[in-house]
Amino acid sequence: MEKIKMTTPLVEMDGDEMTRILWQQIKDELLLPFVDLNTEYYDLGLVKREETKDQITIDAANANKKYGVAVKCATITPNAQRVEEYNLSTMWKSPNGTIRSILDGTVFRAPIMVKGINPVVKNWQMPITIARHAYGDVYKDTEMRIPCKGKATLSFVSTTGDVQMNQTVYDFECPGVVQGLYNKDSSIKSFARSCFQYAIGTKQDLWFSTKDTISKKYDHTFKDIFAEIYETEYKEQFEALGLEYFYTLIDDAVARVIRSKGGFIWALKNYDGDVMSDMVSTAFGSLAMMTSVLVSPDGNYEYEAAHGTVTRHYYKYLKGEETSTNPVATIFAWTGALRKRGELDGLADLQAFADKLDAAVIETIESGVMTGDLVGLWEGDVPAQKVNSMDFLKAIRARLEEKLG
Ligand code: NAP
Ligand code: MG
Predict the structure, then answer these.
(1) Is the CB of 307 under 6 A from ligand 1?
(2) Which among 159, 235, 276, 400 is placed 20 to 30 Å from 321, CA to CA?
């Protein structure tokens, strides 16, 4: 069989631990036999990041900007224990953080749904995609523990000195706490554009929610920026595609989301998105079935799994023990990236390959063959058959070969 050709390179970002092992197995079993893979390879494994003083991460992000589409393996974000384990010269920053700040992107997380693994919320029939604004707010806050009586104020002085604002936050009569948050119009605009762009790209409605009735300046600014960008830049396209942009208060949104059928994007501020993405992904089933894509406002895409490097399984693997790690989200990162590459380059057969591989994965699980993490969630008609990662990939390959004829 002739291999499917690619034109523009896909940026490939390798990673760490168990997912690095799966990465190679996925390529060997499911990609290389069928696709003439044209990737520009960047090794974001921690060893290479240390060796290059993290330059490799910056280079990979710039390549993502140059070519438009990347696929990334999970990577270790170093902490004190990792500094020791890998003998690091410094605690390198999270690669995802570095890439996100270079691309100025928003992360969209969506569950992969299969028949037999049912969401806790029984009326959810389609995926709910969460878009989290990953900038500012409580993650870049300034906080103080107030030790005694006294006044806390919020003040601003412009660089030129001619704008000055000063407000009392609270006149403390006893000890307490105080917190200062900020965000930037430019970042909120990028967030909004990434959301509208992704909604159009995936043909889904976009919901956005904040607490603008209580936060009349901070949250209201988010609401106003979204509304203005929608009106001036995206309304026509939305209407032409029959899509809806829907703003509502976050409490109302929570109630509507629970009662919905799914099938839309829910955009949230940083903290709300952090909390709601964990809630929604748990309610859909498993972190191992959650995909993630970083979308920049100017239309660059980076696909990955939402989970980490699955360290516990890797240590078992190193001891020669059999592991049943779920490769599904990593496979979907590859198919997401290949499909987008195919779309941008007009390669119908590459897009069709991605669709067939997705279908082969879903049908394999629906036939009862799955990794250990899914067995406990299984409610299908056939009995669940737990297999190791390699046998799971082989079962997918058999189905894929059938589909490719
Ligand atoms: P994790 O790798 O997501 O794993 C947490 C646990 O979730 C696993 O121990 C496993 O549970 C289960 N799990 C996750 N993915 C699975 C899969 N594909 N198949 C089967 N089970 C799966 O999170 P972590 O242990 O907190 O973090 C490990 C490393 O990953 C850290 O160094 C962290 O910095 C990094 N990380 C990277 C990213 C990223 O690159 N995007 C994201 C998050 C974390 P059981 O052990 O119970 O089987
Ligand atoms: Mg969280």
Answers:
(1) yes
(2) 400
